[in-house]
Amino acid sequence: MFSSLAFSSDHRPGAPRPTPWAAVPSGPVLHFTADGGIYGEGDETRSFYKIVSGVVRTCKFLSDGRRQIDAFHVAGDVFGFEMGAEHRLTAEAVTDCSVISYRRRGAEMSAASDDGLARQFLSHAMRSLERAQEHSLLLGRRSAQQKLAAFLLDLADRGPDDDMVELAMTRLDIADYLGLTIETVSRTFSQLERDDMIQLVSIRRIRLKDRGGLHALGS
Amino acid sequence: MFSSLAFSSDHRPGAPRPTPWAAVPSGPVLHFTADGGIYGEGDETRSFYKIVSGVVRTCKFLSDGRRQIDAFHVAGDVFGFEMGAEHRLTAEAVTDCSVISYRRRGAEMSAASDDGLARQFLSHAMRSLERAQEHSLLLGRRSAQQKLAAFLLDLADRGPDDDMVELAMTRLDIADYLGLTIETVSRTFSQLERDDMIQLVSIRRIRLKDRGGLHALGS
DNA sequence: CGTGTAGTTGAGATGCGTCAATAGTTGTGG
DNA sequence: CCACAACTATTGACGCATCTCAACTACACG
């Protein structure tokens, strides 16, 4: 099953969402423009963040410039929470976005006195772990078609319309998330359209015409 | 850097290790023989485990029988700790091994009253997450040579001898961990030997002849 | 209406998978 | 100690999925 695909949100439209980190003193709301950097690998972990609006990617880079995107984060998601002194990933805005920043020190002190908060952090970490493990299965053992199908189904599940997907990210982002090249992503979209499983309505809009078929690809 | 490769232990020989989960009431020590199942995906999470001796793998299966090994766990490592009611992975003994089982209920109750314990769980989850993310980078963006080189260097780092690696697992296990086939693993070992970077002393013993070269492969 | 960026498509190369044969290793029983 | 079976690993030949390089197209923005 492709229940998660290592996205960072369980948010479903209409589902009630607990107010996270209520006890953590929050900092200002920050705004970033598309492709703007939020923090880099190795930066000091002064804060972590919760998205108000927009999409954020967290990723790692190889020395040759290639990139592996770890996850896409959407409204309500928390990212950048670390135990160590440095961020292990880079965070960048995929679209224009607004995020609330929480002071790390504040969170740690709160956790020391607020047991429920420690629980929330743990719960968050375990959900992230689950997604990372699902993502490993996808990266290690799936074909390009299966990767794209799972990706689209996952996006559809969290969007408002079950059959229409709005892509916030470029083909390059998708490729770097799925461990492919942009050419393979593009060709595979075209192939899925020829197979009548999807319709490329516009460059950033995809209609799922055969969810059953897409799901079956990943058997 | 290949600092971790998603293995589950930071243990270095001789390094002091804190006694984890001291406040959790521990159950009996269990013994498993090589290739024995410890728990399966979907099993109720009654317990989690700490390894006394031996090696354990945690993995997921696809419907076609293919497997993605998530991590190899060695003495001192904790595995099987979950938030949900069911295990999301399968755990199997790679070698004969002994593990201490901890009752989940006990752990949760302790965490509710023991703040330090909640912290330890969080710390464990964050380390697992870090490894899973490193593993995703490896699976998504590395060649077979780079995967094997990183794997060997990681094993060497945690073994007693920096230049000699003892493989507890079969080629199939290695392949399923790195997202390859046994043939590719075997061929790549042979190629690395031809390139004078390693020596296949015996089927389960590999001498690293050029750590610098191996490291450089992953640039 | 040009210019730049993002996406698509094609042709060819290649790395890894698949299938198949061989070799080595381990365990068992005579 | 040897013979045999079963399992594990290696090697080769070949095919295919994906990557690479390159040309072309579509769209956004001045």
Low-confidence stretches of chain A: 1-6
Helix/strand order of chain A, N-terminal first:
EEEEEEEEHHHEHHEEH
Taking Cα atoms only, what radius of gyration of chain A do you get, to the nearest Å? 18 Å
Largest sheet composition of chain A: 4 strands, antiparallel
Number of strands of chain A: 11
What percent of the residues of chain A sit in helical stretches (DSSP H or I)?
Answer: 25-40%
Q: What's the oligomerization state?
A: homodimer
Specify the overall morphology of chain A. elongated
Mean pLDDT of chain A: 88
Structural class of chain A: alpha+beta
Query: In which order are the strands of the major sheet of chain A placed?
Result: 1-8-3-6
User: Most extensive interface, residues per chain?
Assistant: A-B, 38 and 38 residues
User: Treating each run of at least 4 consecutive H or I residues as one helix, how many helices of chain A?
Assistant: 6
Give the strand content of chain A. 25-35%
Task: Output the keywords.
homodimer; alpha+beta; 25% strand; DNA-binding
Description:
The structure is a homodimer of 219-residue chains. Chain A has helices spanning 104-113, 115-141, 144-158, 171-178, 182-194, 211-217, and strands at residues 26-32, 37-39, 47-53, 56-61, 67-73, 78-79, 90-93, 97-103, 164-166, 198-202, 205-208. With 219 residues, chain A is an alpha+beta fold. In chain A, strands 1-8-3-6 form a four-stranded antiparallel β-sheet. Chain A has a four-stranded antiparallel β-sheet with strand order 2-7-4-5. In chain A, strands 9-11-10 form a three-stranded antiparallel β-sheet. In chain A, helix 1 packs across helix 2 (115-141), helix 3 crosses helix 6 and helix 4 packs across helix 5 (182-194). The longest helix of chain A has 27 residues, at 115-141. The N and C termini of chain A lie close together (8 Å). Residues 1-6 of chain A have low confidence and may be disordered. The first copy, chain A, binds a DNA duplex (30 and 30 nucleotides) through residues 143-144, 170-172, 180-187, 189-190, 203.
